[in-house]
Design brief:
Bound molecules: flavin-adenine dinucleotide
Strand order of the largest sheet: 9-8-7-10-6-1-4-5-11
CATH architecture: 3-Layer(aba) Sandwich
Largest sheet: 9 strands, mixed
Order of helices and strands: EEEHEHEHEHEEEEHEHH
CATH superfamily: HUPs
CATH class: Alpha Beta
Helix content: 25-40%
Distance between the termini: 58 Å
Number of helices: 7
Oligomer: single chain
């Protein structure tokens, strides 16, 4: 089975976020990590490969330095990487991103394409469905369990109470939730092996995409502003024998907890 694992490089969730005058997030190489949601995407790809054999290919659209982040996914166990990078891609919104990923997936070919449920830097959550629409293929979204039996992909999708079971014929796209698995840590052997695994770099020209179809000019979505949420945690700290225990009991009684 040929499995494409879509992985975005995002800034670390703890890194200070700065925006340029054009409201684009400044992305520093030293802050770059695997989109935390995609650690589950990679793990699921590896588990399916362990069950059914075949090949796992990590696909990323990002800056040319994203090879370092792809290599972290290869250290977890994926076979090879494909990076789509091109100066004209800067400023691409989710739809433009989906256009590029869909073209790259067509170029690579696949039975199963895996996505995370969101990218931690933008939380759009629409790339998997946009790619499915562009490719005219089924998307099994928000999977909490995935089983492949021959050419049938079956998922469990969490509902408000319980879950629903949904299936589709491959080639199919699946987006996974964090509860689907527990991502592995790369082993020392995996890290050493990852250095020799191939990463192919592709440009827009390689994919036959006109530069006018991507980037800022082709992106209908415009970021207007970004605000930090002020945390307003009020707390009282009692030290030693300053009557703290009594005041906690009084507070709980006041809240009708006791
Ligand atoms: C005006 C504007 C300008 C932007 N400019 C840039 C920019 O210059 N550089 C930049 O990096 N982002 C940029 N972004 C953000 C970028 O568009 C989104 O991060 C990206 O399209 C993912 O969209 P999403 O949040 O809907 O992804 P989601 O749908 O939340 O992601 C779901 C899954 O899709 C897959 N996926 C998403 N993006 C990628 C990717 N790039 N490669 C591989 N898999 C992926 C992953 O599996 C991910 O878990 C910009 C956004 C806007 C609105």
């Amino acid at each position: 089975m040929k499995i494409v694992i879509c992985m975005k490089e995002t800034p670390s969730t703890t890194a200070e976020k700065r925006f340029g005058a054009d409201m684009r997030l400044e992305r520093r190489k030293e802050d770059a990590i695997i989109n935390p949601f995609d650690e589950y995407t990679i793990e699921e790809g590896l588990r399916q490969q362990e069950k059914h054999g075949g090949e796992t290919i990590v696909l990323c659209m990002g800056p040319d330095t994203a090879t370092d982040t792809i290599r972290k996914a290869l250290a977890m166990g994926a076979d090879r990487g494909v990076l789509v990078t091109d100066a004209a891609l800067a400023g691409s919104d989710a739809v433009a991103t989906a256009r590029v990923l869909a073209a790259a997936m067509q170029h690579i070919g696949f039975d199963l394409a895996l996505f995370g449920s969101a990218a931690a830097d933008s939380y759009g959550g629409i790339v998997p469905s946009a790619v499915a629409e562009l490719l005219g293929l089924p998307l099994l979204s928000f999977a909490t369990k995935l089983d492949i039996d021959g050419t049938t992909a079956k998922i469990e999708r969490a509902a408000e109470v319980g879950y629903t079971v949904v299936e589709a014929q491959t080639p199919a796209l699946v987006s996974v939730m964090k509860s689907i698995n527990e991502p592995r840590y790369p082993s020392m052997k995996g890290i050493m092996q990852s250095k020799k695994k191939p990463i192919d770099t592709m440009s827009l020209a390689d994919l036959g995409i006109d530069a006018s179809k991507v980037g800022t000019g082709a992106s209908g979505e415009k970021a207007l502003s970004a605000e930090k949420i002020a945390t307003q945690r009020k707390g009282e700290i009692y030290m030693g024998n300053d009557g703290g225990a009594e005041r906690v009991v009084a507070f709980l009684a006041e809240q009708k907890v006791l």
